[in-house]
Design brief:
Shape of chain A: globular
Strand order of the largest sheet of chain A: 2-3-1-4
Oligomer: homodimer
Distance between the termini of chain A: 92 Å
Number of domains of chain A: 2
Helix content of chain A: 55-70%
Pfam families (chains A, B): PHM7_cyt, RSN1_7TM, RSN1_TM
Protein name (chains A, B): CSC1/OSCA1-like 7TM region domain-containing protein
Largest sheet of chain A: 4 strands, antiparallel
Main location (chains A, B): membrane
Largest interface: A-B, 41 and 41 residues
Strand content of chain A: under 5%
Radius of gyration of chain A: 30 Å
Membrane topology (chains A, B): Multi-pass membrane protein
Number of strands of chain A: 4
InterPro entries (chains A, B): Csc1-like, CSC1/OSCA1-like_7TM, CSC1/OSCA1-like_cyt, CSC1/OSCA1-like_N
Chain lengths: ~750, ~750
């Protein structure tokens, strides 16, 4: 590929980007698109709906959104979108900083050295092949390799300093988040699984006895996790009918704990009556020990949520091994209520290790099977091969412009499209794995997608690009550095176009929300369906974080090999920063909080990128016979690994556990201010188990922050009123029956 | 090597073994050797010293010791030598069981199949080369490989069943050990390191304030770990002088906590007076906050031992992250007093991670550098090469008997001798690593030596035996199975002789205690030095466990490849069981208790051996083109890994942490029986810090169970009396001075 082909590709992409961004700035002003572009604000009802008047201004592209996104402070973002968004944006800030330094050094220092690496005459830059800009252009035993070595040192040292500061900053933010946030039921609750069953005691009593016996001073109460039995499903049906009638709005006041349910207009009973019924049922069920169904339900119980009086007691109970059999009484700190992944809580604990191994194996297999489409994409890079495969297109391919598009643009588009199948699959694997929280599942999926992306985009492209059928090269770890050093510069062209297409284009598609826009257009304008369900998405960290980290990896690995990639990357990071800020502020709504736990993953990947950069440089210096530079690079490699070890010791436990000091201070504050009593009362109702089968898995978290907003409840009322009345009848009958039974028993006694 | 050469080697070894064992049975009856062969019994003074009369019976070899060693029960061994000895002997029991099964299957099932693998006529077995007994004799695509596959299944399944039962049995023993033993100060104590320094507060107060603040209900007291300052060394000198006079005997009553110190005859003061002086000094030092030396000592304090009121509180404090900076207030459960490795407690906590990495790197480097002597040993195997190297010996080497000795015996002796340098070095590495307990150091050394042995004895011999200069084969993990499958059967001869020489001979040298015997002989009989220091050794788990595990590895890997090794191994395990039982009962004295923590290491290594056996079998089946057998072996491999994972989840945490249930029950028992008060009083004095510089590193543990036994204290008295009087003078002056100062201060106030 020539320099001019690169410019063509860049030109196309810049044009496309400007077009899409202008389109966005117009589309976001159209009232019927508000639900697509202002989902979060609509959900919080802060966004004042404008009247649907038409003005010419609505059709003009403007840059106001960029200004708004830029001037928003970090504290504002934390308040509206949680700590995770802040961490994600810090990743961009780090990238912009480090790649500004890197670009400065590499474009003005390394690039000229590469260009003048061989003693040949350069006349016309646009017709130069791209590899004169790479390190491949430098002759062996050249003194100029010192420039590369110094650049390596500057990049690594500044990256380490910036990384350390970021880790420190984010740790501080996380601690402030833990101590500063309103009381979280998850801090007081421990999830106990694998409770031993005894024949002469109900499980309920077993749990109570155990915790009263060993944690008597701090045990508050517990709530069993019940599999859905007949009894349960019956109550659920009633609730489901009731929910259909009630218009639940998430208002700010509700989020602060006050319930503002409106009356259900058909029956004339208060909306919370069902809750009362439900509680009575549960009480009745508790008393009824002779009922085989109750006993059966208890037998099937996979665990319980145990509430403690203080946060410290919960932390202690979760950290200490409970029983001398480590497979019994397994305790974990419970996720916060909206984060609980209920359907996974029903998995018997004994399966978890097997599930983890199985999903690990499945992910690895998938990672390697995916080589096939990537190899196909790579084969498309070679024009000659393409001409052989499609002889009909020979005429078209002989034209210069088409050839450029095909070699420079199409391969990465195909790769991008095939990559879209990965996140859902990895998310499925992570669900099967048995994570107890939604955030844990997302983190696990993020990690899987990250491994997948780095392997299939970076390694497979680098290695199979030139030695397609020599897959056995993977089995020689010792030759890896020199092999990478040979192959990486050759693939520079592909990755530069990858940044242009996959990187820039993905930002455009992100800001335009193409899928939602089209869906919205069809449902609103074509089918005139006004009662559509305005579902607000949470931020897809599991797809976006690996994407950004891949670009950081590309940036580091190509920094001294092929510095031409850096300006394009820098543009990507700057644009990405603005786009994601805007999206986080306007579109996505955080359904649960990971508390910045993604940062260690990001940190480790960045350090891995640095190490990979050094390993490749090591290979290059070996190939070019520069032993002193090789020695200095090994030194740098060791120092980088030591730096990472230090960071791990210094910070990583902050992201895994709560410290006694913080937790005890929080407990003391609450006790002194008298809030503790209130917290204890709320704890009992915090975790409500709505089985996912009953309401769809997307809303199984019990406390769903954003409910479906029914525009006109009366419309659906006619259909469901019969169901509701039947259910109410059933409920009250069953209730009376159980009361009679209890009374009968009392008589007998 | 021919079968007859093997028989020669076996013959030599059997003769040597019988000779050594007879020699042992004679030597142990000689009274002047009692200190060598009955060290533990002498130390416990249970062994009744016989009069030194001469009888003819004393010169007759007998087998009584074997009977005694065999009939001793496991419970007796646990009581006299601790749980670790039991675990070590269980390893032998496991080995005998599994290799009985394996020998039965392989010698009667696999060996005939191997022998008749090719359609050739066998006439005279002794002249057969050994490789007709190996799997190399089987032709490709043979149906007979099914026998090997079935043997593999039977061996793996029975090994897994036995392993699981052993793990379960040892876990139960460990739990019984924790709950059944007398109160251990280590259970109540937490070692706190990396205490933040503040300018306006003494470290002593910082510690007290922190624990009173956050663990107020359970905090008892604390003891600072002080680096040796001038003040300290001065007190130490006094103590040292005092100790020279006192004859301390370890009697059973003393071990139970009662002090039975005799009077020191020169000064007329009671023996414990120095303890009183010492305590007064420490008190005076505490009050004296203006003394820059005291302030300085506090600044240099690397940590403290914090005592808690209950075991549960100590467990909680050790498990929970204390501060929001994970590098501060680092807590670990303290080792028991005699197990503390004081000189490592003085290492600043911030260095620990760096030290661990550095020793890891050093061990790995040493592991690879050691290849050179091993390669030399291997080159000695080839007679032709030897003839070239030493042309003078050509005449000798041409003789059949010498040739057999050289090829069959010498190489493993050389290897064995060079291996003797490894344990001290690995022990040094483990000391540098910064382990806080002696048992932790030994465990770490054991693991290092294990890796070293498996790598340098097994892998390097297998791989470099035939492809000496092709060390780059290590870099192709994919080809490993087929490569091992080709090379392992070829090295069968070497390893069979290795079992004979290294295995059997090491048992003989173990039971004879050659080094101690010679030392004892010279010191007692030649130099007539009767006041020699009778030092009792603790069992060298770090050298013996890797040795036994290596033989288990050899047994599994050669089981189906070259079954001839199995009978020799079985003899080794049976003999080893008796020899080590005898040595544990008579010679070694347990100075500290690891609580069976070596078992997980043993278990993992055995599972690794099984996996290696399967991987090699996989290679063999691939080479011999038996795809169905390959498939079945992969299935077995996966099942074995799953089995190991299950065991890890089921048992490993028992060996890492104490469970709340057990610990709380223990606390309750002590509280109800009123023993708690007594335990608390003892806690304060349990950990005494005697700097190793003052008394030699071997006795730095404070509570040294076995003191030097001075036969005649009067002899040394004349030398030390002057020193003692001087020191007493100094001590009392300094004491008076400090009292005056304190009084002066009181006046000022």
């Amino acid at each position: 590929m020539e320099f001019s082909a690169l410019l063509t590709s860049a030109g196309i992409n810049i044009a496309v980007c400007i077009l899409f961004l202008s389109l966005y700035s117009v589309l976001r002003k159209q009232p019927h698109n508000f639900s697509v572009y202002f989902g979060r604000r609509l959900a919080e009802e802060k966004f004042q709906k404008q009247d649907d008047y038409f003005s010419f201004e609505r059709l003009l592209p403007t840059a106001g959104w960029i200004v708004k996104a830029y001037w928003c402070t970090e504290e504002e973002i934390r308040q509206v979108a949680g700590l995770d968004s802040v961490v994600f944006l810090r990743l961009f800030i780090f990238s912009i900083r480090i790649f500004s330094i890197t670009s400065l050094i590499c474009v003005f220092g390394v690039l000229p050295v590469n260009y003048h690496g061989k003693e040949i005459t350069h006349d016309h830059i646009p017709t130069e092949p791209l590899n004169v800009f790479t390190i491949a252009n430098i002759i062996e035993e050249s003194q100029k390799l010192w420039v590369h070595c110094i650049a390596l040192y500057i990049i690594t040292i500044s990256a380490c300093i910036l990384l350390f500061n970021e880790y420190k900053y984010i740790s501080r933010k996380r601690l402030a988040h833990i101590t500063g946030s309103s009381p979280n039921p998850g801090h007081f609750t421990v999830l106990v699984r694998s409770i031993p069953k005894s024949d002469n005691e109900l499980l309920d009593d077993t749990i109570r006895n155990f915790f009263v016996n060993y944690h008597g001073s701090s045990y508050l109460s517990h709530q069993m996790i019940l599999r859905k039995g007949h009894f349960q499903s019956f109550v659920d049906r009633a609730e489901r009918a009731y929910r259909k009638f009630v218009r639940v709005r998430l208002s700010v006041s509700e989020r602060n704990g006050k319930s503002s349910m409106s009356r259900c207009g058909v029956c004339g009973v208060r909306a919370s009556s069902f809750q009362i019924y439900r509680n009575k049922f549960i009480e009745a069920k508790k008393a009824d020990l002779t009922n085989p169904e109750v006993v059966d339900a208890q037998k099937n119980c996979p665990g319980a949520l145990v509430f403690f009086k203080t946060r410290y007691a919960a932390v202690v109970a979760s950290r200490v091994l409970q029983s001398s059999n480590p497979m019994l009484w397994v305790t974990d700190l419970a996720p916060e209520p909206r984060d609980v992944y209920w359907s996974n809580l029903w998995i018997p604990y004994k399966q978890i290790w097997l599930r983890k191994l199985a999903t690990l194996a499945a992910s690895v297999v998938f990672m390697f099977v995916f080589i096939i489409p990537v190899a196909f994409v790579q084969s498309m890079m070679q024009l000659e091969q393409l001409k052989k495969m499609f002889p009909n297109l020979r005429g078209l391919l002989n034209k210069s412009f088409f050839a450029r598009v095909v070699t420079g643009y199409l391969p990465s588009v195909v790769l991008l499209l095939s990559l879209y199948t990965v996140p859902p699959l990895m998310m499925l694997f992570s669900s099967i794995e048995g994570s107890i929280s939604r955030s844990g599942r997302k983190r696990s999926a993020c990690l899987k997608i990250l491994f997948f992306t780095v392997w299939n985009v970076f390694f497979v492209n680098v290695l199979s690009g030139s030695v397609l059928n020599q897959l056995n090269v993977f089995t020689r770890p010792k030759d890896m550095p020199t092999m990478l050093a040979e192959l990486v510069p050759k693939q520079a062209t592909f990755f530069i176009t990858y940044v242009l297409t996959s990187g820039w284009a993905s930002l455009c598609s992100e800001i335009l929300q193409v899928y939602n826009l089209v869906y919205n257009f069809f449902s609103k304008c074509i089918f005139c369906c006004h009662q559509n369900t305005e579902y607000v998405y949470s931020f897809p960290y599991h797809t976006e974080v690996p994407k950004v980290l891949l670009f950081i990896l590309l940036g580091f690995t190509f920094a001294i090999m092929a510095p031409l990639i850096l300006p394009f990357l820098l543009v990507y990071f700057c644009l990405g920063y603005l786009v994601y800020r805007n999206q986080i502020l306007n579109v996505y709504y955080p359904k649960y909080e990971m508390g910045g736990k993604l940062w260690p993953i990001m940190h480790n990947t960045i350090v891995f990128s640095l190490v990979l950069m050094q390993v490749i440089a090591l290979g290059v210096f070996t190939i070019k016979h520069s032993p002193v530079a090789t020695g200095f690079t090994i030194l740098l490699l060791v120092a980088t690994i030591l730096f990472n070890e230090y960071c791990r010791h210094r910070f990583s436990r902050i992201f895994e556990a709560y410290s006694a000091q913080d937790v005890i201070e929080l407990d003391r504050d609450d006790e002194q201010s008298g809030r503790m009593q209130e917290i204890h009362q709320h704890l009992q109702d915090a975790y409500s188990q709505t089985p996912p089968g009953a309401e769809g898995s997307s809303r199984s978290g019990g406390q769903v922050p954003i409910e479906l907003i029914l525009e006109d409840p009366a419309q659906e009322a006619s259909e469901s009123s019969q169901e509701l009345c039947d259910t109410v009848q059933e409920v009250s009958e069953a209730h009376e029956h159980s009361i009679e039974e209890a009374a009968g028993k009392a008589h007998c006694v």
